[in-house]
């Protein structure tokens, strides 16, 4: 019997491991065949992903995503060229509500791209706009705030890859 990328549960009688591609409903999340997560709801791991921003999360084939991994998207970024980073303009009741900045004025780190055969350890956090190359390994509890080269191992806070 050959592996079937069209099965949402690739292990019989194990509901907390899914092939991610089949579970996606958000058109701005693109995932390749055989990529799995140790959970039953992948999209709950993609945070601050608002449709009006338009950023994408792109994940290749054969990636392994452990439980507790978080993908933080561009909607979490705060405007840094003002007196305050507090987003007054999004809350009702503030006079600044009428002064909502254009999307072009807000910080945008670009799409988040995870290449093929990437292993992301438990409770790792991937920040907006990061690109992780083929075959990279991201250690558990790591925070990835910069690009990681292919076939690198990255561990720690704001980790850089090591080959």
Question: What would you say this structure looks like, in words?
Answer:
The protein is mainly β and 163 residues long. It is built from no helices and 14 strands. The chain has strands at residues 18-19, 29-31, 36-37, 46-47, 57-59, 64-65, 70-72, 112-114, 119-120, 125-126, 131-132, 137-138, 143-144, 153-154. The strands form three sheets. A six-stranded mixed β-sheet has the order 1-3-6-9-12-14, with no helix packed on it. The protein has a four-stranded parallel β-sheet with strand order 2-5-8-11, with no helix packed on it. The model has no long low-confidence stretch (mean pLDDT 88).
Name some characteristics of this structure.
globular; 0% helix; four-stranded parallel β-sheet; 163 residues; six-stranded mixed β-sheet
Order of secondary-structure elements? EEEEEEEEEEEEEE
What's the number of helices?
0
Give the assembly state of these chains. Answer: single chain
Largest sheet: 6 strands, mixed
Q: What form results from the Cα inertia axes?
A: globular
Rg, alpha carbons: 17 Å
Q: Helix/strand/pairing class, anyone? A: mainly beta
Write the layout of secondary structure elements.
Elements: E1 18-19, E2 29-31, E3 36-37, E4 46-47, E5 57-59, E6 64-65, E7 70-72, E8 112-114, E9 119-120, E10 125-126, E11 131-132, E12 137-138, E13 143-144, E14 153-154
Parallel strand pairs: 2-5, 3-6, 4-7, 5-8, 6-9, 7-10, 8-11, 9-12, 10-13, 12-14
Antiparallel strand pairs: 1-3
